[in-house]
């Protein structure tokens, strides 16, 4: 950690050059003898990424940033705030502290927070930033989180883990046993230290696999932001053996759409099918990830268009956790019919359709955008159809 980067003139330079081409900085004259051009670029790249993802850090003076990979891997403030609201107590230990965004929000819900980070540089950066952010109840410790847990006698209300999804060659991994630490190996030990565990996993982890590998799962939270799944949160309670609750949440600027159910309901729900009616519904990405394809239709009284398309319809418009459209026209899929519509642009979605969006655009010459939405899918008889809709 080069503290010269925190000098006033260097910080002013970083603030004033966020939009400057980094190649010109690398190749240009460097006026700071104790700071390399590469270090300047690293701060510029990471601070630039923090502007939307971490606005509190971005707007706080003298924040020290790690490399852009660390910034890309850290939770956003939106998701960190959400997961902090799931817990409260006296003490929480963040086993894989990283840049400390989650830890910062935990400090608002717990009296004492342990931020454990095995990488020395990142541990120092987080500790410095906590001070700049005015937080006084976080203790930063440079250590292996699991090893620290073995040595501590602290009473811990909650343990939080965000296992690294990168291997020793920096390649992405997706299975729990390939992450670091491997929570499937340490779960018994973790429960010996706390009765409550929260684990964050990536959006690609299969839910059924996670439930089979993790013990005493009480709740699963699937968190999406602006209709993009960002993380899956697993709440584990020592000796818990009851129903597993699944909660999906899509967070946007002006609302939070939630949908929740018990896992056992997935196998109990049946859905009715129908030709497209007046309105079309597309569940948000968190619901799609949950696998509640029949249940969502049942809960909202909707008919499904086709088994694998996961699009729904109704005659009366209802509130729904996803996109809603007024259906203007439905017709069999044929390039000539699409051309007769006289469109030059449209938003295209495919659902259980044999051609990709790119292939359709190439055939139809339709540009992306506009107010018209085209859904390429199948009807209940398996025939290829196109649905024209406008947002409701």
TrEMBL record:
Q: Where is the PG-1098 ferredoxin-like domain?
A: 279-321
Arranged from A to Z, the UniProt key words for this protein are: Methyltransferase, Transferase
- Residue stretches making up the THUMP-like domain: 322-388
What's the protein called, per UniProt?
Class I SAM-dependent methyltransferase
Q: Name one Pfam family in it.
A: Thump_like
Claim: Transferase is one of the keywords in the record: yes
Example GO biological process: methylation
Q: Which species is the source of this protein?
A: Maribacter cobaltidurans
Q: Which residues form the signal peptide?
A: none
Annotated GO molecular function terms are: methyltransferase activity
Specify whether Transferase is a keyword of the entry.
Answer: yes
